[in-house]
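Appendix B. One record, verbatim.
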Amino acid sequence: MLLALVLIIADSPILITEVMSNVRGPELTCGDRNEYVEIHNQSADTVDLSSYRIWDFDPAPPDEICPWTNDSILVKYPAVRINSTLIYPQSYALILDREYCSPDTTGGNWQPYAIPDSTLIVTTDETTICDGLTNTDPLILYSVVDCCTTSFGTPYDSLDNFPLDPGDGISWERIALDLPDHSSNWHPSIDTSGCTPGRANSVANAFDLAVDSQSIWFMPAVAMAGENVQIEVIVRNLGLSGTDEYRLTIFDDANGDSIMNTGELIADLEGLWVGALASVAHSFTYEHPAQGGHLLGFTVEYPNDVNLSNNRAFKLLIVTGEIGELALTPPVFTPDNDGINDRLQIDYRLPEVPGKLTISVFDTRGIRIHDICRNEPWTIEQGTLYWDGTSSRGALPKGIYIVYLEYQYHDKVTRAKKTTVLGR
């Protein structure tokens, strides 16, 4: 039966959107009276919840959803809906513990929630919701009439260690209503009260896009006058919801006022999809920047961003008239997969092609530890290669390393070497 319920979960008009299992205060004195399950009717039709059952997979049988009939709740919440199991389209309902309005105020925190007007209040046919919610209880809510189901806590995946304790007085909130019940789609409430019963979840619009100078790459790192520069910018999403509804602007801050003025815009790029706690790379070609220094500004523009302090970064691009065969950037790279300076950029320029190219890495004892390329036929006069701080034996320890270039063409040989620092 459980398998059949889970298989059709995505088609349910009713969703579990928030669960309060760890009520505020000591468990021995506060008990379970403030536990609740929030549900949302995402359909265009009114749904009768009287055919629904809720179950936490404990041995006790599922609970029936019943109308709330204790009108003492109207003293504090005069405009909520009671004596009904009809949940209107695009609206919320709260499954409350039957003792929520109990006059026993032991442990404090009596009727602690701010429940919006028009919220439907329902309860179960037992004294508690299931046999009392615990921090590790998954839940399933299903209809015995049309088999629609919704779940919390991924009951179909017993190995993901979810749910767990979100913190005292903090609820689990669903991030995206259009995504399934997965541990990545739930997050402890970030509302100052610790929960959002009967209203939009605090984590649903927690957007925070960021850009910083250490996630900006120029290829080549130092350009020659007249050549193009490929720019790669990593936009990071520090928030809990994915989006592509932003813009990335790049400008040449010619007057150094940190503001994009008329004539300074280089590129206006549409956002690429970036998931929660993920990053995405944007690329752009800056054609023939003039010789000299260019302070480039990078701005992420997103109207729903909750933190605008990390939406702008600057990085200096140097365009010179002459450059050697080898350039390394950054001076210190840290390949720890945090999206910042994870690789060493190796820019090379060759006197002419074709020839045979070797770029190797040595330690400070002069021992060759890694070949990026070795005696390979080469037909590209200038370009960029990368090193991730590993050799054939795996990750290398932090320290100083020497990058050595040797290029053979016709009867000539050119050589260059630069040092870099690998940090961890």
